[in-house]
Specification:
Length: 393
């Protein structure tokens, strides 16, 4: 069987599915191939910044997220390990169109995007696929063969290729992009608890301890996700501990959470990824495939959606969707957006390196930094705007 399409998206995580959703009803024929039939990993990014809510509103899909169970949270509160509040980074009083974060479990975010994309009859989702092969690219576009798990074989002819296959991106490797990677020393352990008691604005609470941060992140439908930085040498131990032992580790760091019942989510070794380019002829990389950020800063998914929105704006319309125009628009996208993301990556990387070296001294420095922020009206405002997605880092 053969399919002729305008856009082939490889990978149906948040980035690939968001692009498919943003492209709906614009007339393009879109095929998305995804290797897995399982839901996305629930431990990953689950809150969308106010600026991203503005994008979803512009795409006409924001309400669908609330219908799917998304909730609003006002922002983040920062505490020392004794539970004393040191900074209120709540965004609910900012003069922006959506002064809240939207939160929904990660797997549901991409499912909502895919469901919305599927409302367009020009959209085709092929999953689970077994493998794809790039056969050739010429002046008319590219030819791929795709084998599905049910053994169906397809030829797909496409004008534009989008690599959205995440941090280990096979697309970026097989099309010869140069990748700069850095694996951080400290890992992120994720736990879940159904016991978390929310405040009136569902704020996320982050505690600064001498071992790093402990973040209590509200979950849609109740409970919380707990993110805690751990030393790489302790990864094996954390995997072997019982849940009550893990709970004890949390309460040793933040006594307020004594006897909190927890379940183990997983251990994530954060990696920074930066490809030298995002674009090659009629191919563009999006999401973690070209810019992997330290998850401790909660930016990867949000940054991806912001970039995708700009990519959609720059693509030639369906009537002029031809090779030369596509290549030109991709170059323009790369020139306009990549330098900004390189800057974010650089700043994020510095913070990742600092997180690797966390100790009592840095604990005090961090606490003082947030106390000073709280006292400086202008800087506190900039911090809130930035965390809402309106800044440049
Ligand atoms: C613990 C953790 C917490 C995080 N918290 C936040 C947060 O709070 N806020 C935030 O903004 N970000 C957060 N992030 C980052 C965020 O989750 C990622 O940036 C985002 O999920 C990247 O999406 P993606 O679609 O680029 O990649 P992925 O989500 O990795 O999706 C890639 C998709 O491609 C598919 N695929 C892979 N190879 C192939 C192939 N060969 N063919 C076809 N399909 C393929 C995969 O199955 C997958 O579905 C967090 C990350 C982690 C690990």
């Amino acid at each position: 069987m053969s399919i002729n399409t305008d856009i082939l998206i490889i990978g149906g995580g948040v980035a690939g599915s968001a692009l498919a959703c943003g492209l709906r009803r614009k007339g393009y024929r879109v095929v998305l191939i995804e290797k897995s039939n399982k839901p996305q990993d629930t431990a990953r990014g689950d809150h969308l910044q106010p600026y991203v809510c503005e994008i979803l509103d512009k795409w006409g899909v924001l309400d669908h997220f609330f219908q799917a169970g998304a909730e609003k949270r006002g922002g983040s509160l920062w505490y020392d390990c004794k539970g004393t509040e040191i900074m209120n980074a709540n965004v609910s009083k900012l003069n922006i169109p959506h002064p809240y974060f939207l939160y929904l479990n990660h797997e549901n975010i991409s499912e909502v995007f895919l469901q919305l994309a599927s409302e367009d009859t020009n959209f085709k989702l092929l999953r689970p696929i077994f493998k794809w092969n790039h056969i050739e690219t010429n002046s008319n576009g590219s030819l791929f063969t795709v084998k599905l798990r049910d053994k169906t074989e397809l030829n797909i002819k496409t004008k534009l290729i989008v690599g959205a296959d995440g941090i280990a991106s096979h697309v970026s490797k097989s099309f010869g992009f140069t990748r700069m990677t850095y694996r951080y020393e400290r890992a992120l352990a994720i736990l879940f608890s159904s016991e978390y008691i929310l405040d009136a604005e569902n704020n996320l609470k982050t505690y600064i301890t001498d071992q790093g941060i402990v973040a209590m992140i509200p979950r849609a439908g109740g409970g919380c996700k707990i993110g805690i930085t751990i030393n790489r040498k302790d990864v094996r131990l954390w995997k072997q501990l019982s849940n009550p032992e893990r709970s004890k580790k949390i309460s040793d760091l933040v006594p307020e959470y004594k006897d909190l019942e927890v379940n183990f989510g997983g251990i994530y070794p954060p990696t920074m990824i930066n490809t030298n380019k995002w674009v090659k002829n009629n191919l563009v990389l999006i999401g973690d495939a070209c810019h992997g950020l330290h998850p401790g800063r909660s930016q990867g998914m949000n940054t991806s959606i912001k970039c995708i929105d700009q990519l959609i704006e720059i693509l030639p319309p369906k009537v002029g969707f031809k090779s030369a125009e596509i290549s030109k628009s991709l170059k323009c996208y790369q020139e306009k957006v990549k330098p900004k993301i390189d800057y974010i990556l650089e700043k994020n990387h510095k913070i990742g390196l600092q997180m690797d070296k966390f100790n009592e001294l840095t604990e005090m420095k961090e606490i003082n930094k947030y106390k000073e922020l709280e006292q400086n009206v202008d800087n506190a405002y900039k911090y809130r705007m930035n965390s809402a997605g309106y800044g440049n880092n």
